[in-house]
Amino acid sequence: MARVPRDHRDAPSRAGLGASDPLRQGAAAIGAVLPPITSRAQVLLVAFAALVAIFFFRLVFLQVIVADQYAAQAEESRTVSFDTTPRRGTIYDRNGIVLATSVDATTIYANPVEVTDAAAEAQALAGILGGEAADYQELLSTPSTTFVYIKRQADVEAADKVKELKLDGIYFIADTRREYPHGSVGAQVIGFCNADGEGITGLELQYNDILCGTPGRYVGERGEQGFPIPGGVKEEVAAIDGTDIMISLDIKLQDTVEQALADGVEEVETDEGSALVMDAATGEVYAACSLPYMDPNNMAESEVGSEHVKAITQPYEPGSTFKSVSAMAILESKAMGPETTMFCPSTISANDYDVSDSHEREGATYSLREILNHSSNVGISLAMENAGFPYLNDAIKRYHLTEATGIDYPGEGGGSVLDFNQWGKIVGYNISFGQGISVTPLQMVRFYGCVANDGVMVTPHFLISKPQSGEVAEWPEETVTEDAEALRDLRSMLRSVVTDGTGVKADIPGYEVCGKTSTAEIASEEGGYKREVYNLGFCGFIDNSSSKLVCFVGANEVYGMRQTTKIFNDIMTNAVKQYNITTDEAK
Question: Which stretch of DSSP H or E encloses residue 431?
Answer without folding.
Answer: helix 425-432
